[in-house]
Write a structure and sequence with these properties.
The protein has 96 residues and is mainly α. 47% of the residues lie in helices and 10% in strands. The chain has one domain. It has a three-stranded parallel beta sheet with strand order 1-2-3, with helices on one face. The termini are far apart. The model has no long low-confidence stretch (mean pLDDT 91).
């Protein structure tokens, strides 16, 4: 699955982890948000691209998805770098 995402030209993300992995692999991602969790993460990383709420999926035009592929990039390199410190305090506690 990772090879498929890595080799893709864009990702239509129907699940949370598909959205994240698309960003990790620097792909344009069109999220189909099924929860506030997805929307909150999009806000947290500064995603300014197009997406659709699952409840509004029936009004989505395919052209909108394809148009968004030119602008639905987000740089998460800072979040990746910050995540390396995620368990720093726990590691200090366990290994000292």
């Amino acid at each position: 699955a990772l090879d498929v995402i890595a080799g893709s030209s864009f990702v239509v993300a129907t699940r949370f982890h598909a959205m994240i992995l698309g960003w990790v692999y620097n792909k344009p991602v069109f999220p189909i948000a099924y929860s506030n969790k997805m929307i909150n993460v999009m806000k947290d990383v500064g995603f300014k691209g197009s997406y659709v709420d699952f409840n509004d999926l029936n009004s989505l035009e395919p052209e909108e998805v394809f148009r968004s592929m030119e602008s639905n990039f987000v740089d998460i390199s800072q979040q990746i770098k910050s995540s390396e410190k995620q368990f720093q305090k726990l590691d200090e506690y366990l290994y000292t």
